[in-house]
Every structure is written in C-alpha cells, then in structure tokens.
Amino acid sequence: MPVTKRSEFHIREAVIEWLEKQGWACYREVVLDDKRADLVARMGNKLWVVECKQLRAKKLIEQAIHWSRFSDMTSVATWKWHSDTAGYADKIKRLGFGYISVTKNKQLCDHEFLPLGNSANPFDVSALLNALDKRQRTSVPGTQGGHHTKWRAMCQDIESFVREHEEATMAQVLEAIKVGSRYGIFGSKELARTGLLKAVKGNYLHGVSMTIREQRHTTKKVAEYIPTFYPKEVAA
C-alpha cells in the first residue's frame, strides 16, 4: 500500500501480515505491568514478542530484553538499512533475539535471522498469555498511534453490559464489570463512579446514554436520584 508518512505503525502492520501468513495470531499493543509490547504473536501457547522501531537504537534492545522474560521468542523489527557499521545486528544475534527488516517502498518483511528462543527463561509466559485480548487483534487503529488501553477495554465492556441490561444503575454497572480489580484504573468505588460519569459525559461510551431516574421511598420524605444507563437507541 502507498505510504506518505512512514512510522512504527507501518513497520508493525507489515510484520503482522508476514507473521499471519505463517499461521501466527497477532495482538497489537499488549499491556503488562504498565509496559506495552508493540506486537505479540501467538501459536497455541507459544508467544513471540516483536518490538518495532524506525531506528536501530539501544532502547529497542532494552525493550527486547524486558519482553524476553515473558515470551518464548523475542525479535526486533526496523526499516531495512543498507549498512550496519555499528554492528547492531550482531548485538541482537548474540542476545539470542531475532531481527526483522522491512523495506520502505513496498513494506515487505525479510527476517535477517530468527530468534533462538528463550528456552532457559525462568519466567512463566502465562502472565503475557493472560494479558492477550481478542480486541487487540480486531480493533486496528484508524489512525496511527491508537492503542488498545485498559480505559478503552473498560468502555467497551460497559457498552456491552448496558446493551444487555437496559436501565442498569450505576451500582449494577460497576459491580458487573468489576472496575477496580479488573482494569486497575481506579483505586476506590468513588473514583470509579467519577470515572464512569466522565466516560459518559465525554462521549467515550459511544453506545450508552445516561439519565437521572427519580426514586421515591414510602418511608422517606425525600426522593433519591439514581444515574441510570441505556443503550443510545432507546435512551429516554
């Protein structure tokens, strides 16, 4: 595809196309312990992390070293360069990582060498395996730089719940999606309530509307006003 402005996004998408042809399922922007892997490929329970950068830099190798603790194989991917005076490829190879180069004009991948594998890895890959989300495969950003974040995952789960439970109250939504424990975004129920209101008012929940429902108690003289959520198409 023709490209006017190339970026890491284009490197990653070219690598994904290359890996999927080999039978790997690819996940974009996978977050684990506040670190984000550019690309995680999975085949069965085998994981291959690929860090993508435009330039061959020290930071890229450091990122690869980090993810080698959580994966079976680790590679780095950059644009294809005609010379390697700094011996960058040799450094990667000595560490046991793979190196993928992408041509700028046609965005075609060529593996310079495959990773040796992290067979001596004392860490359990199940942590990264559990961090994979199918939406990281299907929700390709419309513009480069988009990420599948915890906030986005939370908003999508709220939308799904409200579609299935019309007139859900604030308490029901927060309980159903376990905001605090599942996403690690909010530290308390009060902060979770504030965050949910922010999501609605800021139009982050594209399929959800909120109304304030008045509820009167027979034993109380004052009314209680309860935030209630509806799918947008049936919102009051």
Detailed description of the structure:
The structure is a single chain. This protein has 236 residues and is α+β, with helices and mostly antiparallel strands. It folds into 2 domains: 8-138, Trna Endonuclease, Chain: A, domain 1 (3-Layer(aba) Sandwich), CATH 3.40.1350; 150-234, Arc Repressor Mutant, subunit A (Orthogonal Bundle), CATH 1.10.10. It contains 9 helices and 9 strands. The chain has helices at 8-20, 58-67, 88-94, 126-131, 135-138, 150-164, 170-177, 179-183, 189-201; strands spanning 25-32, 35-43, 46-52, 73-79, 98-102, 109-113, 168-169, 208-216, 223-231. The strands form 2 sheets. Strands 1-2-3-4-5-6 form a 6-stranded mixed β-sheet, with helices on both faces. The model is unreliable at 138-146 (pLDDT under 50).
Kindly list the characteristics that best describe this protein.
236 residues, Trna Endonuclease, Chain: A, domain 1, Arc Repressor Mutant, subunit A, 2 domains, three-stranded antiparallel β-sheet, 34% helix, elongated
Summarize the topology.
Elements lengths: L7 H13 L4 E8 L2 E9 L2 E7 L5 H10 L5 E7 L8 H7 L3 E5 L6 E5 L12 H6 L3 H4 L11 H15 L3 E2 H8 L1 H5 L5 H13 L6 E9 L6 E9 L5
Parallel strand pairs: 3-4, 4-5
Antiparallel strand pairs: 1-2, 2-3, 5-6, 7-9, 8-9
β-strand percent reads: 25-35%
Which percent range fits the helix content?
Answer: 25-40%
Radius of gyration: 23 Å
What kind of sheet is the major sheet? 6 strands, mixed
* CATH structural class of the largest domain: Alpha Beta
Structural class: alpha+beta
Quantity of strands, as a count: 9
Mean pLDDT value: 76
Spatial gap, N to C terminus: 45 Å
- Tally of helical segments: 9
Strand order of the largest sheet: 1-2-3-4-5-6
The assigned CATH architecture of the largest domain is 3-Layer(aba) Sandwich
Please tell me the total number of domains. Answer: 2
Order of helices and strands: HEEEHEHEEHHHEHHHEE
